[in-house]
Design goal:
- This protein is an alpha/beta fold.
- It has a domain of 201 residues: 3-Layer(aba) Sandwich (Rossmann fold).
- The strands form 4 sheets. Strands 3-2-1-4-5-6-11 form a 7-stranded parallel β-sheet, with helices on both faces. Strands 7-10 form a two-stranded parallel ribbon. A two-stranded parallel ribbon has the order 8-13.
- The N and C termini lie far apart (53 Å).
């Protein structure tokens, strides 16, 4: 039986990845600070452990796995990574995890490690025009990410590739672009734009109002979780080390995204644009390289994943409302 280790298995992408690996017949160990928030883990073995501790990493990597996926990171939406208040933690925590995981893998001769970098590592100067952002993989330098989160990702992707060169490892590096879907964080400050908008639309009355950070003209693309998992596994098993974008090329403004959610919800609400952290002005995935090297690129229309995500978040909002009403009674 093939074996896999998923670091960050209690998180959004990690918990979905564990399910997919299980459905492919793998024996899976998950590791995370916490269990998945919204459903039981599918992992055969789940270690609740802090990967900043090198000894925990060595306990997690106590054998040779066929595949290791390193998704653990100190992470959040714009409200967490772009305010500047969490910069020291983001850089220190995530870099420490990556240093420790790599060291533990090397000790046990684990060569094939997938690492999830982010489109946040691309230079800010290429993302000022919302209509023509540049995210070709080779546009990374001269480096100028707009957040410390992006700088840490850039450092860590270089770290994994250096281990390939110097220690004969076979790490694979993907740059994810805004992954969304059911069972992702949808409130509390670490949620991303699609989840935040689904929540706001679900919570507000038809004819009411929702708030959007910035003027809403900033552009992004969003990739549904199933497509992300497919690309992740394909890259890990391929002979291409990356870094390569895993993202959607369907670029929308945040106001358009809000409109799409309202249409799905069958509600009309006024958009009030308020000051808030927004990140770069424009970003879209560029998929020529992944198409060329993997013979595949994400192609599912945004609306399909958004529909599934809205249904799930509207259910969560309803449940929370019920809980609050019972508590008040
Ligand atoms: P997530 O926050 O849901 O998952 C990350 C997990 O890492 C969390 O469950 C967290 O508890 C765990 N973790 C954090 N610190 C840890 C520690 N010290 N020890 C053990 N576990 C720890 O985020 P996600 O959306 O699932 O993202 C997974 C990876 O993909 C991250 O590396 C993230 O930076 C990257 N990424 C995600 C997106 C996206 O849109 N979701 C975009 C670009 C990159």
């Amino acid at each position: 039986m093939k074996t896999a280790l998923v670091c960050g298995a209690g998180g959004f992408i990690g918990s979905h990845l564990v399910k997919e690996l299980k459905s492919q017949g793998f024996w899976v160990r998950g590791v995370d600070l916490k269990m998945p928030a919204f459903s039981e883990t599918a992992a055969d073995d789940f270690m609740v452990a802090d990967l900043r501790d090198p000894y925990n990493c060595r306990s997690a990597v106590d054998r040779r796995f066929d595949e290791v996926y390193q998704l653990a990171a100190d992470m959040g939406g714009a409200g967490y990574i772009f305010t500047g208040e969490n910069d020291a933690d983001i850089m220190h925590n995530s870099a420490t995890i990556n240093l420790n995981v790599l060291d533990a893998c090397l000790r046990r001769n684990n060569k094939r490690i997938f690492y999830s970098s982010s489109a946040c590592m691309y230079p800010a100067y290429n993302q000022e025009d919302p209509n023509r952002p540049v995210t070709q993989e080779d546009s990374a330098y001269p480096a100028a990410p707009d957040s410390e989160y992006g700088w840490e990702k850039l450092f860590s992707e270089r770290l994994y590739l250096a281990f390939n060169r110097n220690y004969g490892m076979q790490c694979r590096v993907a740059r994810y672009h805004n992954i969304f879907g059911p069972e992702g964080t949808w409130d509390g400050g670490k949620e991303k734009a699609p989840a935040a908008l689904c929540r706001k639309v679900a919570q507000a009355e038809n004819g009411g109002e929702i708030e959007i950070w910035g003027d809403g003209l900033q552009t992004r693309s969003f990739l549904y979780i199933d497509q992300c998992i497919k690309g992740t596994i394909m890259l890990t098993r391929s002979d291409f080390e990356g870094p390569v974008n895993i993202g959607s090329e369907e670029m929308v403004t945040i106001n358009q995204l809000a409109d799409m959610v309202m249409t799905i919800a069958d509600k009309r609400q006024r958009i009030r644009n308020i000051p808030g952290p927004v990140g770069v002005r424009g970003r879209n995935s560029h998929n020529e390289l992944i198409r060329e090297r993997l013979g595949w690129a994400p192609d599912e229309p945004l609306e399909i994943g958004l529909r599934k995500t809205y249904t799930w978040i509207a259910g969560q909002v309803e449940r929370a409302r019920g809980r609050n009403q019972r508590a008040a009674a």
